[in-house]
């Protein structure tokens, strides 16, 4: 029978490699999102190294403020895998060998034609009074223990092992226990061509609401608004979200390009396919990053013809067709060069649209006339060609990322017949 108390979940990532920054704690995001889908809230995230005393202390803190604790990592066979041992000591319970868990570990090695190393017997130890959680993809069974009002789940660190155990065991157990909790639903709106401060100044009447909440987040070269509602059912949440989303679209329609998991590359590719169009790119300062963003989208080959990294002027001229006179007179970083890159790659690769990007990403190479962050994006298509001048700020990586996103944004506008959005009356792009 489901209890009335709400789930107050806490996530603990165990591993020195996480604490010192060698790997990213991706579990925190993934598990939080999964619990939110079922109306369960994560209140705290923490990370702790492979030190038994500190792991015990972390469990102690979690037990006083949370009623569901999910720890990932530290369930391997080596001496520095200490999560299970630390929780057992904190709870004052013994570790006992589970014959079922041992058989599962032995079966893993047998299926691979290998004898099980003796040290892997450690992975079949279960906290007294607890349950072991089958691991279909590895040798580290998980653990479940209920103690003094707190549900403890121990899961292995490798994502391919953790995910099925989370889905098949942890979520059903928590839903069964906290099944009466409210649902939580979010809608994400993606913006480009407008800054976070500009949006924030125009949504003060929406961000002050408690349900749904509206929160802006800055990204590299774009921003998002997250609308989050809670309610007894998912449909009740959507009833709260829809009018807010409609109002935001009314205020910012020209700048909203997608929702939820959309990206600039994915919406551009979708529209290209819908119109039977194709794209080719010629990149200088972005060095292939634009093509990478595009080909990261599954199915991109249906609309993306290919690209040229025209870093050296000889490649710009011989491969893409930029005129030697243009390079000599205006230089590689110039409006005419960007235009000819776009027109040339479109013609050479036989695409409907061509994009050319050239600029100074820094940190060196700038001059008073052509400073770091000056980027030209050329766009060639059936309606002719345009060049957008960008004045970007940030590190070399930021300038390259923002250049790619601006290029995709300009093509998105062109594909939607809104190519003047975000341009001043000189035809130059917004500075930022």
From TrEMBL:
Superkingdom classification of source: Bacteria
What InterPro entries does this protein map onto?
CinA, CinA-like_C, CinA_C, CinA_KH, Competence-induced_CinA, MoaB/Mog-like_dom_sf, MoaB/Mog_dom
The record's listing under SUPFAM superfamilies reads: CinA-like, Molybdenum cofactor biosynthesis proteins
User: By its UniProt entry, which Gene3D superfamilies does this protein fall under?
Assistant: 3.30.70.2860, CinA-like, MoaB/Mog-like domain
Which residue ranges does the record assign to the MoaB/Mog domain?
Answer: 10-177
Query: Signal peptide position in this chain?
Result: none
**Family according to the record:** Belongs to the CinA family.
Question: What protein does this entry describe?
Answer: Putative competence-damage inducible protein
Which organism is this entry from?
A: Alicyclobacillus acidocaldarius subsp. acidocaldarius (strain ATCC 27009 / DSM 446 / BCRC 14685 / JCM 5260 / KCTC 1825 / NBRC 15652 / NCIMB 11725 / NRRL B-14509 / 104-IA) (Bacillus acidocaldarius)
